[in-house]
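Thread: "does anyone have the structure for this chain?"

Original post by V.I.:
We have the sequence but no experimental structure in hand. Need at least a predicted one for the grant figures.
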Amino acid sequence: MGEKDPVNNFEQYLIQEEVLTENDGNAIRDELKAKVEDELKQADAKAFPLAVHTSVEINDVYAPMSRRKN
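Reply from O.Q.:
Generated one for you, tokens below.
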């Protein structure tokens, strides 16, 4: 991460102040990553399949063409 990353900077500050160990930081990161991945799996399981009907989609984009009377 870059030197302007506030999360990384705060983590390094906590390690320097001996509030947090590097192992603690890694454990928190791993726990959060696992939670995010679990939530994504749950969201994917609840998602409904998307049915695409090309003719309906085209009609929504393009107005039917009509002939003008002269």
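V.I.: this helps a lot. The two ends are 69 Å apart (CA to CA).
O.Q.: and The chain has one domain: 6-61.
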